[in-house]
Write a structure and sequence with these properties.
Structural class: mainly alpha
Number of helices: 4
Radius of gyration: 18 Å
């Protein structure tokens, strides 16, 4: 594949990665604010699905297509923008992995509460707070990666 084809794949997968992450976080954030157990149960289940169907493949495609572009373009691996981007990508991933774990648990708690027609347990809200707190540095890290990819500072 030529450079522009790989770059197109890379850009599309980055949009899918950040867009799905931001979109699902937006909906779960506001479903949580509604305090509607039914809405939270539905949204949390769909957030987990979106992560498996869209975010996970994009997480895999990003470093592969990025490495391929680096190779095709002949960029040095020790370039600041490449090292910084990789470090920020790892930081975002280190936040994302526990987020996925929390999302799965939150979904199960919400579905159980909805099925039994009870309020969400305190554990749900502890997970929700941690989920939210991990989302901020992950999102900021990905915005910084976008900036580095566009500007390629030396």
């Amino acid at each position: 594949m030529d450079y522009l084809t790989v770059k197109t794949i890379h850009i599309l997968s980055s949009v899918l990665l950040v867009g799905t992450g931001f979109g699902t976080a937006f909906y779960l954030f506001f479903a949580n604010r509604s305090r509607s157990v039914e809405a939270i149960a539905v949204v949390s289940r769909l957030v987990v699905r979106a992560d498996w169907w869209f975010t996970t493949p994009a997480v895999i495609v990003q470093p592969l297509s990025g490495a391929w572009m680096i190779h095709l373009a002949g960029y040095p691996l020790d370039a600041f923008w490449i090292r910084a981007s990789l470090a920020l990508y790892v930081l975002a991933g280190a936040c994302w992995l526990p987020v996925v774990w929390y999302q799965v648990r939150m979904g199960k708690l919400a579905l159980a509460a909805h099925a039994s027609n009870t309020a969400l347990p305190a554990q749900y809200w502890r997970y929700a707070r941690r989920w939210e707190l991990l989302g901020y540095p992950a999102f900021i890290a990905m915005l910084a990666v976008y900036w580095l990819m566009v500007h390629k500072p030396v």
